[in-house]
Amino acid sequence: MTKKSKPVAVPVANAVLGLGEPLLATESRPYLEVMAPATLSEGYAFEAEVDRCSFMVKVPKGGVKKGQKFTVPYPSDKPATQAPSLDGRWRDGLCDCCQFGCCHSVLWNAWCCPLILVGQTMTRLKLNWLGCEKSEQSSSTFRILVGITIGYWIRLVSSDIVVATTPSTDTFIASGLHNVMVGVVILVDLAFIVLLISLVYKTRRHIRDKYRIPQTRCKGCEDCCCAFWCTCCTNAQMARQTADYDTYAAKCCSTTGLSPNVSLEKCANVYSGSTQRPDILGVLEGI
Questions:
Q1: Are 233 and 94 in contact (CB under 8 A)?
Q2: Could you tell me if 153 and 146 are in contact, meaning their C-beta atoms sit under 8 angstroms apart?
Q3: Are 207 and 234 in contact (CB under 8 A)?
Q4: If we measure between CA atoms, which residue out of 13, 52, 10, 50 comes closest to residue 32?
Q5: What pLDDT does 62 receive?
Q6: What DSSP line would sit under the chain, residue for residue?
Q7: Of 119, 121, 193, 266, whose Cβ has the fewest other Cβ atoms within 10 Å?
């Protein structure tokens, strides 16, 4: 028998209960939007889920049809929940790149646009484009690394064009130009690789310090080894560590890799073991 999943309630900024006037969600009076799992009559009660906790929903006056969305107050009797803590541990493993599927933007950015992905992670952590803790400069981190990435793509295309159009005659001038071009290409490639590895190294070290994660392998040089030998996997793991992709959808080209409506302070859903009511207004910011 297939287990039926419970309808999931979603926080909303504005609510209309029955035929009453529109209401605005506040910290003391949040509202949830629920999709009816079936055609139900007025007063019927069914179980829904919010923040991975169940509560009872009562069908409003007039009843609802299957798939119809309606608004209900946030359950006041819902017990406090223990927020997951990531102190001292990684959210998942280094090789869990396909945890959210092979089409997830984090996976593709890690392999095809690694500087863009590490730029998104660094923006969440409020690091500047050199990996230093300077929150006043972190707003430009993503833009700078996107610019470097575009410049590197231009290098890839232009060097192929130059090679294809270089005369094949074995003259001193042609040979000299070819050698200079090859030297420039090697230097640009080396600079790009060094920048990428150094940023992954600095960001991983910052994450370990932030979440108090101990080194378990290659003690003393774990960050360096992961950044050098497993750059793409390490890059993807850092992105998953700093955002809860079970809750928030990934965005390929946004500044933080998440929707602009998501607050940076809430996106990681990381607390130091504190017990508290789930923060509804953190989700509502920007709606």
A1: yes
A2: no
A3: no
A4: 10
A5: 86
A6: -PPPPPPBPEEESEE--TTS--EE--SSS-EEEEE-SS-B-TT-EEEEEETTEEEEEE--TT-B-TT-EEEEEPPTTPPPEE----TTS-SS-TT-TTTT-TT-HHHHHHHH-HHHHHHHHHHHTT--TTS---GGGGGGHHHHHHHHHHHHHHHHHHHHHHHHHS-----HHHHHHHHHHHHHHHHHHHHHHHHHHHHHHHHHHHHHHHHTPPP-SSTTSHHHHHHHHSHHHHHHHHHHHTS-TTTS-B-SSSSSSB-TTS-HHHHT---SS-EE---SHHHHTT-
A7: 193
Nearest to 242 by CA among 279, 201, 204: 204
Cβ neighbour number for residue 81 with a 10 Å cutoff: 13
pLDDT along the chain (287 residues), means of 10: 50 48 49 82 79 76 86 64 66 92 94 96 93 83 96 86 62 66 87 97 95 88 95 96 86 90 61 39 40
Q: How many C-beta neighbours within 10 Å does residue 201 have?
A: 20
Task: Return d(Cα 172, Cα 162) in angstroms, integer.
Answer: 17
Q: Which tokens go with 69?
A: 């969305």
Can you give the pLDDT at residue 180? 79
Contact 257, 70 (CB under 8 A): no
CB 73 within 8 A of CB 31: yes
- For residue 9, the tally of other CB atoms under 10 A from its CB is 22
